[in-house]
Protein backbone atom coordinates (compact mmCIF):
# COMPACT_ATOMS: atom_id res chain seq x y z
CA UNK A 1 0.00 0.00 0.00
CA UNK A 2 3.10 2.28 0.08
CA UNK A 3 1.75 4.47 2.88
CA UNK A 4 -1.50 5.22 1.04
CA UNK A 5 -4.86 4.66 2.64
CA UNK A 6 -6.13 1.27 1.52
CA UNK A 7 -9.22 1.21 -0.64
CA UNK A 8 -10.79 -1.17 -3.12
CA UNK A 9 -11.00 1.55 -5.77
CA UNK A 10 -7.23 2.11 -5.56
CA UNK A 11 -6.66 -1.64 -5.77
CA UNK A 12 -4.24 -1.59 -2.85
CA UNK A 13 -6.15 -3.67 -0.32
CA UNK A 14 -4.18 -6.45 1.35
CA UNK A 15 -6.20 -9.63 1.79
CA UNK A 16 -5.40 -11.12 5.22
CA UNK A 17 -6.14 -14.60 3.87
CA UNK A 18 -3.25 -14.20 1.43
CA UNK A 19 -0.90 -13.16 4.26
CA UNK A 20 -1.99 -16.17 6.34
CA UNK A 21 -1.47 -18.43 3.31
CA UNK A 22 2.02 -17.04 2.63
CA UNK A 23 3.32 -16.44 6.16
CA UNK A 24 0.96 -18.09 8.66
CA UNK A 25 -1.65 -16.78 11.08
CA UNK A 26 0.86 -16.17 13.88
CA UNK A 27 2.96 -13.96 11.60
CA UNK A 28 -0.09 -11.86 10.72
CA UNK A 29 -1.11 -11.59 14.39
CA UNK A 30 2.43 -10.64 15.42
CA UNK A 31 2.69 -8.03 12.67
CA UNK A 32 -0.67 -6.48 13.51
CA UNK A 33 0.33 -6.17 17.16
CA UNK A 34 3.84 -4.95 16.36
CA UNK A 35 3.19 -2.21 13.77
CA UNK A 36 2.41 0.45 16.35
CA UNK A 37 0.31 1.60 19.24
CA UNK A 38 -3.03 -0.18 19.34
CA UNK A 39 -5.03 3.07 19.14
CA UNK A 40 -3.18 4.54 16.14
CA UNK A 41 -3.44 3.74 12.45
CA UNK A 42 -0.36 2.37 10.71
CA UNK A 43 0.84 1.81 7.16
CA UNK A 44 0.98 -1.74 5.84
CA UNK A 45 4.46 -3.04 5.09
CA UNK A 46 5.29 -6.34 3.44
CA UNK A 47 8.83 -5.95 4.84
CA UNK A 48 7.34 -5.63 8.32
CA UNK A 49 5.42 -8.87 7.80
CA UNK A 50 8.63 -10.58 6.67
CA UNK A 51 10.42 -9.23 9.74
CA UNK A 52 7.77 -10.73 12.02
CA UNK A 53 8.13 -14.03 10.18
CA UNK A 54 11.91 -13.94 10.80
CA UNK A 55 11.26 -13.21 14.49
CA UNK A 56 8.99 -16.27 14.79
CA UNK A 57 11.56 -18.38 12.92
CA UNK A 58 14.14 -17.29 15.51
CA UNK A 59 11.72 -18.36 18.27
CA UNK A 60 11.33 -21.75 16.51
CA UNK A 61 15.10 -22.24 16.26
CA UNK A 62 15.61 -21.63 19.99
CA UNK A 63 14.82 -25.33 20.50
CA UNK A 64 18.21 -26.03 18.87
CA UNK A 65 20.02 -24.35 21.80
CA UNK A 66 17.68 -25.54 24.58
CA UNK A 67 19.46 -26.94 27.65
CA UNK A 68 18.14 -29.27 30.38
CA UNK A 69 18.48 -26.61 33.10
CA UNK A 70 15.12 -25.89 34.72
CA UNK A 71 15.51 -22.39 36.20
CA UNK A 72 16.86 -19.15 34.81
CA UNK A 73 20.58 -18.81 34.12
CA UNK A 74 22.27 -16.50 36.64
CA UNK A 75 23.40 -14.03 33.97
CA UNK A 76 19.89 -13.60 32.54
CA UNK A 77 17.74 -13.77 35.67
CA UNK A 78 17.39 -9.99 35.98
CA UNK A 79 16.64 -9.64 32.25
CA UNK A 80 13.99 -12.38 32.53
CA UNK A 81 12.18 -10.56 35.35
CA UNK A 82 12.48 -7.19 33.61
CA UNK A 83 10.91 -8.76 30.52
CA UNK A 84 8.08 -10.39 32.53
CA UNK A 85 7.34 -7.01 34.13
CA UNK A 86 7.47 -5.11 30.81
CA UNK A 87 5.38 -7.59 28.82
CA UNK A 88 2.77 -7.93 31.60
CA UNK A 89 2.41 -4.15 31.95
CA UNK A 90 2.39 -3.54 28.20
CA UNK A 91 -0.28 -6.20 27.59
CA UNK A 92 -2.48 -4.66 30.30
CA UNK A 93 -2.09 -1.25 28.62
CA UNK A 94 -2.59 -2.59 25.05
CA UNK A 95 1.02 -1.69 24.14
CA UNK A 96 1.60 -4.90 22.24
CA UNK A 97 4.31 -3.40 20.04
CA UNK A 98 6.63 -2.62 22.96
CA UNK A 99 5.86 -5.97 24.60
CA UNK A 100 6.95 -7.76 21.41
CA UNK A 101 10.06 -5.55 21.20
CA UNK A 102 10.97 -6.62 24.76
CA UNK A 103 10.63 -10.28 23.78
CA UNK A 104 12.77 -9.68 20.67
CA UNK A 105 15.45 -8.15 22.90
CA UNK A 106 15.32 -11.15 25.24
CA UNK A 107 15.67 -13.59 22.34
CA UNK A 108 18.76 -11.72 21.18
CA UNK A 109 20.30 -12.43 24.61
CA UNK A 110 19.69 -16.18 24.24
CA UNK A 111 21.38 -16.19 20.86
CA UNK A 112 24.33 -14.15 22.20
CA UNK A 113 25.04 -16.81 24.82
CA UNK A 114 23.98 -19.62 22.45
CA UNK A 115 21.74 -21.29 25.04
CA UNK A 116 18.32 -21.06 26.64
CA UNK A 117 17.30 -22.99 29.76
CA UNK A 118 14.02 -24.88 29.98
CA UNK A 119 12.87 -22.33 32.55
CA UNK A 120 13.66 -19.41 30.25
CA UNK A 121 12.04 -21.17 27.29
CA UNK A 122 8.89 -21.92 29.27
CA UNK A 123 8.61 -18.27 30.33
CA UNK A 124 9.24 -16.94 26.82
CA UNK A 125 6.65 -19.25 25.26
CA UNK A 126 4.11 -18.21 27.91
CA UNK A 127 4.75 -14.50 27.33
CA UNK A 128 4.56 -14.88 23.55
CA UNK A 129 1.47 -17.13 23.56
CA UNK A 130 -1.16 -14.32 23.40
CA UNK A 131 0.61 -12.96 20.31
CA UNK A 132 1.53 -16.20 18.50
CA UNK A 133 -0.63 -18.97 19.98
CA UNK A 134 -0.11 -21.63 17.31
CA UNK A 135 3.68 -21.73 17.17
CA UNK A 136 4.07 -21.36 20.95
CA UNK A 137 1.62 -24.19 21.68
CA UNK A 138 3.45 -26.45 19.23
CA UNK A 139 6.85 -25.60 20.74
CA UNK A 140 5.42 -26.15 24.26
CA UNK A 141 4.27 -29.65 23.30
CA UNK A 142 7.54 -30.44 21.50
CA UNK A 143 9.53 -29.41 24.59
CA UNK A 144 7.45 -31.80 26.70
CA UNK A 145 6.03 -29.23 29.12
CA UNK A 146 2.96 -30.36 31.05
CA UNK A 147 -0.57 -29.59 29.91
CA UNK A 148 -1.57 -27.01 27.34
CA UNK A 149 0.22 -23.69 27.15
CA UNK A 150 -2.94 -21.61 26.94
CA UNK A 151 -3.87 -22.95 30.40
CA UNK A 152 -0.42 -22.38 31.94
CA UNK A 153 0.08 -19.88 34.75
CA UNK A 154 1.51 -16.49 33.79
CA UNK A 155 5.20 -16.20 34.75
CA UNK A 156 5.78 -15.04 38.29
CA UNK A 157 7.53 -11.70 38.72
CA UNK A 158 10.04 -11.63 41.56
CA UNK A 159 10.57 -7.93 42.24
CA UNK A 160 13.75 -8.54 44.23
CA UNK A 161 15.24 -9.89 40.99
CA UNK A 162 14.68 -6.64 39.06
Overall structural class, as computed from helix and strand content, comes to mainly alpha
Order of helices and strands: HHHHHHH
Specify the CATH class: Mainly Alpha
CATH superfamily: Isoleucyl-tRNA Synthetase, Domain 1
Mean pLDDT: 89
Describe this structure in words.
By secondary structure, this protein is an all-alpha fold. The protein is built from 7 helices and no strands. It has one domain (16-161): Isoleucyl-tRNA Synthetase, Domain 1. Helix 4 (77-92) packs antiparallel against helix 5. The longest helix is centred in the middle third of the chain and has 18 residues, at 96-113. It is globular.
Present the secondary structure layout.
Elements: H1 16-23, H2 25-34, H3 46-61, H4 77-92, H5 96-113, H6 118-128, H7 133-143
Helix pairs in contact: 1-2, 2-3, 4-5, 6-7
Keywords:
7 helices, mainly alpha, 162 residues, Isoleucyl-tRNA Synthetase, Domain 1
Quick recap of the structure?
The chain is mostly helical and 162 residues long. It has helices at 16-23, 25-34, 46-61, 77-92, 96-113, 118-128, 133-143.
Amino acid sequence: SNGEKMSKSRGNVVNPDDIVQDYGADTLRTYEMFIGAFDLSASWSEEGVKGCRRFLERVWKLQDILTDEEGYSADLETKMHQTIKKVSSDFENLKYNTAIAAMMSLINEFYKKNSITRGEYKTLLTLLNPVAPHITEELWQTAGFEGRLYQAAWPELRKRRL
